[in-house]
């Protein structure tokens, strides 16, 4: 009894210490301790105001000998009792009219399942662009507040635009991890600055540095689904090499399911936070052929009729008001009936593949949700399923493309007859496709505009469903409160009973800027006024301001599918005014009738923009890509390597575009002349490679698949031993995509000279890496070799020397525009 009393006394003292040490502002009642403190099984919650919490004082006894001492283990930190698991899901490039759950013609049964088990939200909004939305989603703060006023590739040296989520903006991953959750991230990460993507880090802006204990996914804005630029934590992986029929969409679900099973086996009582963000339906649209077959003929009605069907479905489902208006079709886009038979055939195929990709993505999401149920954890899992990070993408041009990198490189009108050659293969590994803008506009029904346009809801309105069976009982309900992507973090925080921290790693935190949506979970509050009273929108100077049911916005000076910077001065943008309480779709502009109300709203925008680091406004749009930014290779013109080094990201590779360059490979060739890649960047969609095939040196230049130029030796195979292989390219600039002449030399003797009429203007695919000694993902010339094509000799030294860039000033903005659009 005396020993028990002594133990209890120690426990009481330790509990008191823990409370004193960690409860600076929280009441003592917030502390939840299980078991006997000091025992291996003891757990404790923390107030959460300081993360990580300070370590507790040792509560045991230490004497000279272990026989006279007493062990004491720090309690394991756990979330509050009953805290739910959290499954946060978001798809890509899907506007409000895409999913069947919100009236679209594409079935989305997984999203249906969440909506039927919980609630649908009809006035939920994004930022209009992918990585800004994602930064706001995981921080609970506006995108400019956390440095993501634009994507990283357009970052500039201002607090709202540097693409760095600073330590004063801890993510929901950090908050939940330090409060005892297991945290993981699957799918797209476009929140690591492009200048920090290499193996050299730093890794504080990678998922691991943002509170996620496990990451499996891709780092940029998009990737090929058949051969993705894929990482497990910090390491590149190549699972398709061992998995016939591989597709990333299924792989992500497999990995998430396996990870949850492992968590359940290891610690079944520990809540999990799974952030699941697959790439669908961002280009390239690459579902499996089985999914494509399901949609054969489903879009022959055309985009105008489809838009009317979606609008009718939305009213029938009650996800738009009964008096909502369908906004007019823009003059810039052709009516379906005005198209030729070939155009209709091609464009319908494009939509079939987009729909297949969307449905396929939702299906795999459904598998992840089903696993939660199979583990018996569905009842106490908060599932948030956001349908799209912005509106549907207009980046496929007016006619679509079988190779998105043609559009990214300024080729905006691939002839329909050329595209039809890919009709049967559309969506396969031999294409990298996107669809015509007419579909994108229609999939954003009932709104105007598309992705990139923050001023109109076609760019920012997302369907969303939330379920939590243990808490939400008004199943199948619809909620019409105005909310924003920054509201997700405070919703999770309140639902889990965890406090937003005031300090993380000794750094004072910016306040969370969103508001919790938990109040909408109750049926009694189904029609309660929104608690999100004011919200600004801004992207590339397209602006909007919501305030208590009113909305004012600028009109885009040019459509988003044009690769050009705005020339209209910022202060001359035309403003519009809408009373959203009576005009859901921004159909009736009241600016001329209510100039005083418009001025009031403009003043509120300026106030919010000042508060959240939106200034300075910049309408150069994608021309900002030419701005200097941190880089480990900035300013270098000589690059030297040896041995085999694969997987260097494009941001750390020598940029050969629009300039002269020389590649020199000092190699040792084995008997037989040798085989394998010496150096390459890019692949099937654009790029170059210097390699040896059956003893013959070869340089291939792949111009977007439109032209494949090949320099090759024609003599006997290289003899065993040391050789110097040089490719010297003279660029005939200045200007973009000018001709050039290349000379392939072996041991000082020219073996092939060839001129090409054009060159790659703007971009080599960023999800294809710079590789030395082998080739990862896809090859630049499928007729010559198959990846990985590892060199069977030795690379003693490989040197690339770059000449000066030969862009005229007017060309720089065009180049920057295409690069930036490609990387979103």
UniProtKB/TrEMBL annotation:
Keywords for this protein: Calcium, Hydrolase, Metal-binding, Signal
Q: Name one Pfam family in it.
A: Sulfatase
Q: Which Gene3D superfamilies match?
A: 3.30.1120.10, Alkaline Phosphatase, subunit A (3.40.720.10)
The Sulfatase N-terminal domain covers: 84-498
Q: Name one GO molecular function term.
A: hydrolase activity
Q: Which domain of life is it from?
A: Bacteria
- Tell me yes or no: is Isomerase among this UniProt entry's keywords: no
For this chain, the family text in UniProt reads:
Belongs to the sulfatase family.
Q: Which PANTHER family match?
A: ARYLSULFATASE FAMILY MEMBER (PTHR42693), BLL2667 PROTEIN (PTHR42693:SF43)
Protein name as it appears in the record: Arylsulfatase A family protein
Per the UniProt entry, what species is this protein from, by scientific name?
Answer: Candidatus Accumulibacter aalborgensis
């Amino acid at each position: 009894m005396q020993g028990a009393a002594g133990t209890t006394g120690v426990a009481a003292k330790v509990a008191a210490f823990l409370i004193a040490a960690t409860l600076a502002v929280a009441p003592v009642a917030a502390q939840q301790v299980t078991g006997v403190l000091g025992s291996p099984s003891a757990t404790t919650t923390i107030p959460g105001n300081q993360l990580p919490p300070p370590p507790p004082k040792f509560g045991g006894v230490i004497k000279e000998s272990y026989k006279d001492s007493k062990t004491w283990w720090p309690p394991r930190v756990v979330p509050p009792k009953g805290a739910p698991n959290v499954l946060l899901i978001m798809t890509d490039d899907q506007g409000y009219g895409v999913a069947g759950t919100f009236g679209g013609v594409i079935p989305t049964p997984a999203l249906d399942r969440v909506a039927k088990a919980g609630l649908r939200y009809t006035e939920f909004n994004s930022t209009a662009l992918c990585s800004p939305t994602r930064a706001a989603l995981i921080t609970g703060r506006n995108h400019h507040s956390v440095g993501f006023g634009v994507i990283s590739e357009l970052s500039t040296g201002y607090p709202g635009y540097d693409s760095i989520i600073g330590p004063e903006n801890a993510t929901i991953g950090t908050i939940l991890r330090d409060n005892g959750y297991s945290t993981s991230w699957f799918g797209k990460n476009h929140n690591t600055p492009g200048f920090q993507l290499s193996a050299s880090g730093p890794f504080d802006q990678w998922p691991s540095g943002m509170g996620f204990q496990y990451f499996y996914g891709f780092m940029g804005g998009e990737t090929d689904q058949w051969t993705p630029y894929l990482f497990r934590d910090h390491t590149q992986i190549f699972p398709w090499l061992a998995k016939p029929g591989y597709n990333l969409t299924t792989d992500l679900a497999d990995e998430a399911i396996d990870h949850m099973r492992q968590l359940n086996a290891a610690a079944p009582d520990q809540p999990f936070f799974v952030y699941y963000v697959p790439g669908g339906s961002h280009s390239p649209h690459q579902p499996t052929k089985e999914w494509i077959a399901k949609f054969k003929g489903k879009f022959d009605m055309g985009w105008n009729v489809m838009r009317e069907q979606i609008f009718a479905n939305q009213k029938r489902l009650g996800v738009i008001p009964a008096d909502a208006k369908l906004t007019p079709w823009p003059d810039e886009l052709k009516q379906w009936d005005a198209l030729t038979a070939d155009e209709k055939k091609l464009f319908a195929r494009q939509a079939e593949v987009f729909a297949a990709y969307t449905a396929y993505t939702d299906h795999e999401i459904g598998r992840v949700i089903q696993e939660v149920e199979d583990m018996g954890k569905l009842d106490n899992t908060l599932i948030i399923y956001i349908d799209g990070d912005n509106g549907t993408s207009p980046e496929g041009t007016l006619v679509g493309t079988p190779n998105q990198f043609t559009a990214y490189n300024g080729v905006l009108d691939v002839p329909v007859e050329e595209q039809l050659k890919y009709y049967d293969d559309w969506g396969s590994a031999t294409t990298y496709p996107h669809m015509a803008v007419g579909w994108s506009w229609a999939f954003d029904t009932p709104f105007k505009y598309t992705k990139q346009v923050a001023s109109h809801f076609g760019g920012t309105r997302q369907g969303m469903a939330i379920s939590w069976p243990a808490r939400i009982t008004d199943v199948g309900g619809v909620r019409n409160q105005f909310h924003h992507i920054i509201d997700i973090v405070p919703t999770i925080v309140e639902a889990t009973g965890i406090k937003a921290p005031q300090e993380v790693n000794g750094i004072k935190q910016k306040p969370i800027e969103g508001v919790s949506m938990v109040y909408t979970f109750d049926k009694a509050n189904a029609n309660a006024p929104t608690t999100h009273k004011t919200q600004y929108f801004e992207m590339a100077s397209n602006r909007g301001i919501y305030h208590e049911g009113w909305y004012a916005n600028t009109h885009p000076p040019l459509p988003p599918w044009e690769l050009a910077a705005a020339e209209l001065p910022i202060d001359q943008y035309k403003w519009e005014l809408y009373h959203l309480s009576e005009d859901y779709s921004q159909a009736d502009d009241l600016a001329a009738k209510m100039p005083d109300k418009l001025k009031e709203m403009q003043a509120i925008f300026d106030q919010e923009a000042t508060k959240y680091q939106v200034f300075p406004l910049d309408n150069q749009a994608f021309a900002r890509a030419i701005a200097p930014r941190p880089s480990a290779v900035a300013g270098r013109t000589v690059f030297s390597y040896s041995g085999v080094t694969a997987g260097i990201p494009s941001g750390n590779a020598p940029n050969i575009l629009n300039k002269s360059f020389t590649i020199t490979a000092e190699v040792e060739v084995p008997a037989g002349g040798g085989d394998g890649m010496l150096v390459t960047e890019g692949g099937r969609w654009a790029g170059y490679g210097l390699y040896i095939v059956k003893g013959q040196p070869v340089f291939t230049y792949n111009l977007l698949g439109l032209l494949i130029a090949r320099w090759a030796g024609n003599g006997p195979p290289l003899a065993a031993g040391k050789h110097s292989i040089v490719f010297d390219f003279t660029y005939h600039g200045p200007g973009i995509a000018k001709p050039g002449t290349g000379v392939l030399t072996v041991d000082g003797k020219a073996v092939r000279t060839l001129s090409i009429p054009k060159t790659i203007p703007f971009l080599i695919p960023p999800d294809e890496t710079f590789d030395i000694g082998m080739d990862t993902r896809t090859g630049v010339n499928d007729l010559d070799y198959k990846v990985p094509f590892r060199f069977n000799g030795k690379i003693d030294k490989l040197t690339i020397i770059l000449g000066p860039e030969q862009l005229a000033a007017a060309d720089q903005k065009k180049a920057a525009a295409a690069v930036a659009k490609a990387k979103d």
